[in-house]
Fold this protein.
Amino acid sequence: MNPASHARTAGAAPVLTAAGLRVALGGVPILHGVDLEARAGEVHGLIGPNGAGKSTLLRALAHLVRPGEGEIQLDGEVGLSSLRARERATVVGFLPQDTGVDLDFTARAIVAMGRYAHLSRWSQPGAADEQIVTASLERAGVAHLAERSVRTLSGGQRQLVMLAKQLAQAPRAYLLDEPVSALDLAHQLEIVALMSSLADDGAAVVAVLHDITLAARACDRLTVLQHGRIYATGPPDDVLTVTMLAEVYGVRARVENGPEGLTVTPLQPLRRP
Ligand SMILES: Nc1ncnc2c1ncn2[C@@H]1O[C@H](COP(=O)(O)OP(=O)(O)OP(=O)(O)O)[C@@H](O)[C@H]1O
């Protein structure tokens, strides 16, 4: 972690606090008592193998799946479930893993939907909302796609448009499920920089990431999930160990700390954990 981001996170207040979350899907227990804090001004990475429960945890934080036990508190005092949907949308924004859209809307129209959270039931978007939509398209690097139907966009372009919608929504906590999975290298770096600038602006950012080296460099804190439980949480330097990679991912790996930060190189599969 670079020293600037370290300073950014010192003393950061939790926006969302999950305590003892238990979630079952289709009658199958998936999360078994998970605690997590999404802090203002911090980029928090969720990592772990396929099926560990990362998306489920993110969806629970976004109030898209209801925990059987445990709850999510806003600012440590209000239950997220007690908020009205529109109010909740000013607190949490969720970028799904699958951004497929089967609607014939332009990218601009999709991004404009992000503003609904900030309008009263009877009001129409105004000039200020339009400006925010334009700025959000620009900040996500997709202003040139504004008038294209989202149906005609590539997977990566659609992912960026959906991210622009989150920017227009401007929640206090951005919950991003694999935000770089469909992106080329340059766009990945741009999204990492964007996550960092959102945190600099005071937002809490929680992102599911599969590229561990990218996660190490992009995140102030990492939480490792394994079989629906937290294996470790803390600064990347503490969490990303050879032992963790063997025990959680079932790989022999090299972890190096160089001038650009940590690099994790998987070398050989071990017996599946
Ligand atoms: N609707 C459902 N009914 C039953 N089981 C489900 C349902 N949705 C997800 N699961 C299971 O819950 C577990 C956790 O899934 P989840 O998508 O949270 O994992 P993940 O860590 O995000 O995985 P990935 O890295 O592959 O995206 C998986 O075993 C999955 O098969």
